[in-house]
Write a structure and sequence with these properties.
Elements: H1 3-11, H2 147-152, E1 157-158, E2 164-165
Antiparallel strand pairs: 1-2
Length: about 170
């Protein structure tokens, strides 16, 4: 499926694109709220600045995809492979990333406020200036992440060991 066909079918009301191959697709800046892309192959896709709020991306493959500036608020990304993807400046408020793999992902300045990252793989992810306030990181793999950088991003965040990090900005 190409970008034109996807956008055309979405425009007429179709929302279920479960399992489609959209690898290398370029649909940056599009509005695709509440779309079902579960199990889809979006490897190396350019989804920069795309609106995917409340989308279902469970089990999707987004290896080395560009999602910088994308809106994924309240999206479901359970068991999604985001290894090596660029999510810088993306908004994932309230997103469910349980069991997702974000190994070597770029998360600089992303908003993960109240996101569920339980059992997620964040090994070697770049999280500078990422908002992880109120996020759930229980049993997440944070190998290779500087603990001071992690703690500077957390406010009332549940850490991998179950402890709650205090708000670093509280006086």
């Amino acid at each position: 499926m190409n970008a034109h066909e996807l956008l055309q079918r979405y425009a007429v009301g179709e929302r279920d694109f479960n399992g489609v191959d959209l690898s290398n697709i370029e649909i940056f800046g599009s509005h695709l709220e509440k779309i079902n892309l579960s199990q889809a192959n979006l490897s190396r896709a350019n989804l920069k600045d795309t609106w995917l709020s409340e989308a279902n991306l469970d089990g999707a493959i987004l290896v080395k995809a560009s999602l910088s500036g994308a809106n994924l608020d309240y999206a479901s990304l359970r068991q999604t492979n985001l290894d090596g993807s660029n999510l810088s400046e993306a908004s994932l408020m309230g997103a469910n990333l349980e069991g997702a793999s974000l190994r070597n992902a770029e998360l600089r300045m992303a908003n993960l406020y109240n996101a569920n990252l339980r059992n997620a793989n964040l090994e070697l992810a770049c999280i500078g200036e990422t908002d992880l306030s109120y996020a759930n990181l229980i049993d997440a793999n944070i190998k290779g992440i500087n603990i001071d950088t992690l703690l500077s991003c957390c406010g009332n965040t549940v850490l991998p060991d179950g402890q709650v990090a205090s708000d670093p900005w509280a006086g």
